[in-house]
Amino acid sequence: MSFPPGLKAPVIWQMLSWIVQPFTLMERCAQRYGDCFSLALSTKFPPMVLVSAPEALQHLLSSDNGKDFDVPGELNEIFEPLLGSQSVLGLGGEPHRRMRQLMMPPFHGERMRSYSQLMGEITQTVIGTWSVGQNIDVHAAMQSISMRVILSAVFGVEVGSRYQRLEQLLAKMLNDMGSSLGASMLYFRSLRQDWGSWSPWGNFLRTREQIDQIIYAEIADRRAHPNPERQDILTLLMSAQDETGAGLTDEELRDELMTLLVAGHETTATALTWAMYWLHKLPDVRTHLRSELQNLEDLEDVNALLRLPYLNAVCSETLRIHPVGILTFPRVVRTPVAIAGHTLDPGTIILGCIYLAHRCESVYPQPEQFRPERFLERQFSPYEYLPFGGGARRCIGMAFAQFEMKVVLAHILSEVELSLANSKPARPIRRGLTAGASPVHLRVEGFIPVIPRPRTVTSARLHSP
């Protein structure tokens, strides 16, 4: 049982292909080598193994006990320029477990559901800026919605110059780093040259510095004027203590807030963009979903909304055909292990390929077709369907992201008539370290009258400097 086969091309060529056309590269390797192959994705590490068969994914993701596999901290350094060295995404072992426990409560259960009205209000605010005949940049609109939602969850904000400036800077940073050049700077340290604000890396550093100034100013304000009554995530993290009674440092708080702000909105914005594309490319799907929504007595009834089977199927199929994270977090082999017909030696880095797993024809017949009904016909195992990764590294915001998708889609389909502005098919593209969609534009055809409902939920204000 030899090492998995892979491309013989030079490392730099493989890395550039991974940065520019990762989807074509994965599909080509799968066609040539099957569901287990190797790729050179770093000049610092030997070729890495990618697996996509459910059995191999089960072996990999159910062995997060530190015995067979561990997390290669050095490889997660790719996140550091964006998120910082203390981000939960880069931590391993006990520090990772502790930080996950601290960060999970706001993204689950009743606390998560308490954001439903806010999500609806933010969606309606964005819709209110549209006019009949206008062409909407769908990703920009969805990014605006998801950005405001996560800012509200993290800071408990409503308005304020500091909040508005942070929103603008985060969007700028992510759009700049979402390009192929931006991704290249994360993969190739040699491109990180600060030649002033006019250079790509220098521009990124100065944008990040402005973001840091806002975040650290907010942390300082909270430390100077503590308010234990607040329920936002920053307050929760600032009150957390470990077994020695020590709390998080300002740097740790900053890194976790950046992780939430970046990962907590960009992935949802991309998923919503794809959902909006398919709903308006396939009229039958849109009609079916709109009919289900019209049967709701109250769009604000969160429990009823979450129980809608076709809405859930549409969201699930969106995340199947276009997973935002195309790979699981890497694991490193600790002891010799047999997986997918190959024996891997200690030190080998292995990743689950979510993109290819979601295109396995034996699991998903006609995988290139957008067909929500497949999620009504059967239930898929967590090793067949894993849009948020799996094991101990599964995304802590999974439930929150799915919840937000449902609320936003329900409001848009119930309040606006839209159509595709052109017939050009959307395609998956790289967006920074994740997958994105090529530009999608929808035309506003008209508005559907809605019955106003009383609003009672209020949010705290993010202090203006």
**CATH level-4 homologous superfamily:** Cytochrome P450
- The Rg value, from CA coordinates, equals 22 Å
How helix-rich are the residues, as a percent range? Answer: 40-55%
Average pLDDT for all residues: 89
Q: What is the tally of helical segments?
A: 19
Instruction: Fill in the CATH topology.
Output: Cytochrome p450
Most strands sheet: 5 strands, mixed
**Order of strands across the main sheet:** 1-2-8-5-3
- Poorly predicted spans: 453-465
Alpha-carbon distance between the termini?
A: 63 Å
Total strands: the figure is 12
Can you give a write-up of this model?
With 465 residues, the protein is of the alpha+beta class. It has helices at 11-20, 22-33, 54-61, 80-83, 93-103, 109-113, 116-127, 138-155, 161-177, 180-187, 200-224, 233-239, 250-281, 283-294, 302-306, 309-321, 354-357, 374-377, 398-415; strands at residues 36-39, 48-51, 69-70, 135-137, 331-333, 337-339, 342-344, 349-352, 416-420, 428-431, 434-437, 441-447. The protein has a single domain, classed as Cytochrome p450. The chain has 19 helices and 12 strands. The strands form 4 sheets. It has a 5-stranded mixed beta sheet. The chain has a 3-stranded antiparallel beta sheet with strand order 4-12-9. Strand 1 and strand 2 (48-51) form a beta hairpin. It is globular and about 65 Å long.
